[in-house]
Specification:
This protein has 863 residues and is mostly helical. 60% of the residues lie in helices and 4% in strands. Strands 1-8-7-6-2-3-5-4 form an 8-stranded parallel beta sheet.
């Protein structure tokens, strides 16, 4: 139908300013209106509209069924009406075509998931969130499956909305709650229960319908980006609009200028209390409403913290792909955002300089501008231009401190471009300029290709920095790292590290000295294969007692004390409760930052309980964890930290076997304080099920620039392995070892990738070439299992003696023993361990799904 229909109801037309005035005039703190968003609100976020999809599907289905070439949409519609009337409904083309294109709900869900994947909110959602924060709205209904509204709240507001995507969850929403509410009338794309076909959208679920009716008693409704072709919604609205007690504030239907309306929508607009507003689009409307309602305030975008994903969204605003800046309101805010982004770059550089010997107060304006230019070139990945700029600056600058700063920037650039020889050359340049700055020697050692060469280089410098506590600690730590990976060699001995730690203590005995933590690692390495548990525990406890006698409240003591967790055999509930009591007591007398840090340790302690849970203590352990949750249930999400949500996630999968809830809490943990220390834990939770790999976009977006390169590349290797992309998995593994990954972990992962890709000869050679260089029996046992499984696949004779040694090391109880039993075809013994491990912690079921050594038919019993 054409716009001529609108000419018949000109008296129904209202302006955006009119609408803004109606929104502002509310009684008390209760908003006048709920929002109702349709597919048109998502177009500028890159999601195809219903009309676009209908065009695609109509053409595809017409050509398939008629076997004729598509010429005109009117011809196609007429043909479908005449020949396919048993399923085709012109008044609801979207649903009827969607149902014809995809047979099953699961297929429709996957299609929707692909459509909304990786999409980020347009600027209109930022305005929407601020209007919610200011109290002008508190509820939004939507037929959309995307997560754009929730994402916008997540990025730009401290308020976390209630998200209801299921009929069963909607019933409990209170109309009086001021907390933002997002009600998805047709479900969420993450679930097969989304309503999208003709039969599914003919009526609303009973709880959803009741809640929609309940809200219309108190609120009016503003429809945006919605065509009105959904009978399940429109039947309810047509009924309510005729009743005096509902929709007392009316309905305002926002439609794009020039868009046609259907005959049914024309009839609906003819009702009393229904008006229409012509708009340029969703984003333009939200921008104009915001500026009219908030009296010219500018978009604030919530807090000031820079978040990787948030930055991406803002970058999208600034790039203005859809020319939204043609709106005078949006144009002004985009200009402001550009200035803000530039100011943030300046702020970041100032913070960097404040930790450097170059003081920004002493910099000339030209120097500061040059540094900023280099930073922006690096940030925008213009590495060649940055290199040229830096070489010019280094050769021309006279200020020594500034010259060193430029050289450090050049080293950073050469690291990015993998030019290690140039990076080392510039390290020597730094050392020549300042030969007693040990940080430059440490930097050079970190860039050396060979680990052995790097450690020996530092050992040879000990005499040069004989009174530096920090340098001694760094070298001791480097020695321990090397021995953990490769074992002792002629020039790299554990005794050298021990002597350095003792010398460090002589220079500084306070708990601020990192030598305490390094000594704890030294003890771990000393007893790595020692079965004398009593001696190991005694040395650890003596170290802790010595620290406690100096200061039991010191953060380094708290860290070591809480991280010292016994094995399942040594675990005692009384000792655990004593730890919790001690840490809780310290929290009561600590600063806010220290409170959070100690709370993190407490969460980690509770997380460790899953490793020691057994049939004997299971009930008590679950009770303790639940008590901990109850004690913290009233704390706002914004005040909680990542270890708490990791614990919740682990509990949901391990005890409740609820994968959806586990993923929800794992996602929540991503941007919380202390999340960078927990990247592996978060990753492991997000990847329990291969079907949820799309969750990792947000994960990598947030952590890309925040974590150690070796960890990042290791996780990316794991990510590609889960996708069966073995080439990229191996590529990132090699990058991880270049950036300092632990060598035994590298060999385990390398042999495992080969095992998964069925390159069994490479598994055997990788293990045989490296196993004698490994000092940890645990690592050797894993490599033996990988090798023997590969040999069995190749029809080669397996080494039964080595496998029985693996079983002996695990005392016939651990998962390595289980793997050995499976290879030896001692299935009943293997199944006993499998059953015990999965019953103890259901997360193991998902972990074991990825293990080639466990037969699928046996594991499927526990699905």
């Amino acid at each position: 139908m054409s716009n001529n229909l609108l000419d018949k109801i000109k008296h129904k037309k209202r302006t955006v300013r009119d609408l803004a005035n109606f929104i502002k005039i509310s009684s008390g703190n209760i908003p006048n209106y709920s929002l109702f968003l349709g597919a048109g609100a998502s177009v500028t976020s890159g999601i195809l509209s219903g009309a676009n999809l209908v065009e695609q599907w109509r053409k595809e289905i017409y050509e398939r069924l008629s076997t004729s070439a598509y010429s005109d949409h009117n011809d196609a519609i007429n043909w479908l009406k005449q020949n396919e009337s048993d399923w085709y409904d012109e008044s609801n083309e979207y649903s009827s075509l969607f149902e014809k294109k995809f047979d099953l709900p699961a297929q429709r869900r996957r299609f929707v998931e692909q459509q909304v994947d990786k999409k980020l909110p347009s600027i209109g959602y930022a305005y929407l969130v601020e209007l919610f924060d200011k109290g002008f709205f508190d509820t939004v209904f939507t037929t959309n499956f995307d997560d754009l509204i929730n994402e916008a709240f997540y990025q730009f507001s401290s308020n976390r909305p209630l998200l209801c995507a299921h009929d069963s969850s909607i019933k409990g929403i209170s109309i009086t709650s001021s907390r933002p509410k997002i009600i998805k009338l047709h479900g969420d794309y993450l679930f097969d229960g989304i309503k999208s076909s003709l039969s599914e959208t003919s009526s609303l679920e009973i709880n959803t319908k009741d809640k929609l009716i309940e809200f219309t008693k108190e609120y009016g409704m503003i429809f945006i980006g919605y065509s009105g072709n959904d009978k399940s919604i429109m039947n309810v609205m047509n009924s309510l609009i005729k009743q005096n007690e509902y929709l007392k504030n009316g309905i305002y239907w926002c439609k794009r200028k020039g868009d046609n309306i259907s005959q049914d929508l024309f009839k609906f607009l003819n009702n009393e209390k229904v008006y229409f507003v012509e708009i340029d689009g969703f984003d333009e409307l939200m921008a104009e409403l915001f500026h009219e309602i908030s009296n010219g305030e500018k978009l604030s975008l919530g807090g000031s913290e820079k978040e990787s994903k948030r930055d991406k969204i803002i970058k999208g605003f600034i790039s203005d792909k859809f020319n939204l800046s043609l709106s005078c309101y949006i144009e002004e805010d985009i200009k402001k955002l550009k200035k803000l982004t530039y100011a943030q770059d300046i702020s970041s550089l100032i913070n960097e300089l404040s930790d450097d010997e170059v003081s920004n107060n002493n910099l000339k304006e030209n120097d500061f501008r040059d540094l900023l230019k280099v930073d922006r070139l690096i940030k925008n990945n213009k590495i060649n231009e940055a290199e040229k700029e830096l070489n010019n600056l280094i050769s021309s600058v006279e200020n020594l401190s500034l010259k060193k700063k430029y050289i450090q920037k050049a080293i950073e650039v050469y690291e990015i471009s993998n030019n290690s020889s140039k990076a080392l050359e510039y390290c020597d340049y730094l050392i020549k300029l300042d030969s007693f700055n040990y940080n430059y020697y440490l930097l050079k050692s970190s860039l050396m290709d060979e680990s052995k060469e790097s450690v020996i280089y530092l050992i040879e410098l000990i005499a040069k920095f004989s009174y530096s506590v920090s340098f001694k600690n760094k070298v001791a730590s480097a020695i321990i790292n090397y021995i953990e990976s490769y074992g002792e060699c002629e020039n790299i001995k554990l005794n050298i590290a021990k002597e350095l730690i003792e010398e460090s203590f002589k220079l500084e005995m306070s708990l601020s000295n990192d030598a305490w933590s390094i000594k704890s690692r030294l003890i771990n390495l000393k007893y790595i294969n020692n079965i004398d548990r009593d001696s190991y525990l005694k040395e650890k406890k003596n170290l802790l007692k010595e620290m406690e006698s100096i200061n039991p409240n010191h953060i380094q003591y708290v860290e070591l004390y809480s991280s010292f967790f016994p094995s399942r055999e040594d675990f005692k509930i009384d000792d655990f409760q004593e730890k919790i009591k001690f840490l809780t007591k310290i929290i009561d007398t600590s600063s806010l930052n220290k409170k959070k840090y100690i709370f993190s340790n407490i969460c980690d302690l509770y997380l460790n309980l899953f490793d020691v849970k057994s049939k004997d203590n299971e009930e008590y352990i679950i009770s303790m964890i639940n008590d901990f949750f109850d004690k913290n249930k009233d704390i706002e999400d914004s005040h909680l930290i990542s270890p708490f949500f990791i614990l919740k996630s682990k509990y949901e999968i391990s005890i409740n076997k609820n994968l959806d809830k586990s993923l929800k809490y794992a996602k929540k943990s991503i941007d919380k304080q202390f999340s960078t220390e927990n990247t592996r834990k978060i990753f492991n939770l997000l990847t329990l099920n291969n079907e949820t790999l799309s969750n990792l976009d947000e994960f990598f977006s947030y952590f890309e620039l925040k974590i150690n390169r070796s960890i990042l590349y290791y996780l990316k290797s794991d990510y590609y392995l889960l996708k069966d992309d073995y080439e990229n998995s191996m590529l990132f593994l090699e990058k991880a070892i270049e950036k300092g990954m632990n060598y035994p972990d590298y060999i385990i992962r390398k042999s495992y990738i080969y095992l998964c890709s069925n390159e069994n000869d490479k598994v055997i050679s990788t293990v045989n070439n490296n196993i004698n260089n490994i000092i940890s029996n645990d690592t050797k046992d894993v490599l033996i299992i990988n090798r023997e499984l590969a040999k069995k696949r190749c029809g080669l004779e397996i080494d039964k003696v080595s496998l029985r040694n693996v079983i002996a090391h695990g005392k016939s109880k651990d998962d390595k023993s289980m793997g050995a039993y499976f290879i030896l075809e001692q299935i009943s013994e293997a199944e006993k361990i499998l059953k015990k491990e999965i019953e103890s912690d259901y997360m193991n079921y998902y972990i074991y799904k990825q293990w080639p050594v466990i037969p699928n038919d046996i594991l499927n019993k526990y699905k």
